[in-house]
Amino acid sequence: MTESPDPARFAHVTDWVFDLDNTLYPHHSNLFSQIDAKMTAYVAELLTLSREDARKLQKELYLEYGTTLNGLMERHKIDPDDFLEKVHDIDYSWLVPDPVLGTAIRQLPGRKFIFTNGDRGHAERAARQLGILDHFDDIFDIVAAGLTPKPAPQTYEKFANLHAVSGPNSVMFEDLARNLAVPKALGMTTVLVVPHNFEPTFSEIWERDPDNADDVDYVTDDLAGFLSTIVEANA
């Protein structure tokens, strides 16, 4: 499923921006399922709902507000720190260290950032387990974003202003096409990272963003291989 990158499209890139969940670690690791279950449990306890009703509400909040956290803050004025601590209390050993990915990221020319709707602690623990944490210049998390999640335009603008990132000189890697709309509008090269070999859930993921096909420059199900091709071309 990997589209080979055109080296000319990446030769000018000085800033490499990566989403975390299901992007820097593969979808098949299923790590996010732990977070998803924790969010459902949080909603159930908060509102005294059955698991089924809590999950339904959780998904409604996600679709309406961009993240479950954002929806719970808007509707129920929850403490975001409490939510983030509880839903990210998970087992990171599910992630397998990826030395090929680490080597490729380290050798990319320029700065590298993690840009996530999760919090910094989650990003650090996941990246450390993958063996890639030390290769990043900074992590821009939901707290740095003022708790306003992607795909809100002001969140990308805040990130770009904070780190002096110029759209035409940067590339964004994401697992959700809708989160690439603003980067594309800012002039960034965009790469959609999809599940390996069209896993059964891939069609559902793709169908969630049917209007964003034009916001995607490249699609890959092998991030390490995609980056390695760029590195080798620039060597």
Automatic annotation (TrEMBL):
Ranges that cross the membrane: none
CDD domains: HAD_5NT (cd02604)
Entry-linked InterPro entries: HAD-like_sf (IPR036412), HAD-SF_hydro_IA (IPR006439), HAD_sf (IPR023214), Pyr-5-nucltdase (IPR010237)
Record-given protein name: Pyrimidine 5'-nucleotidase
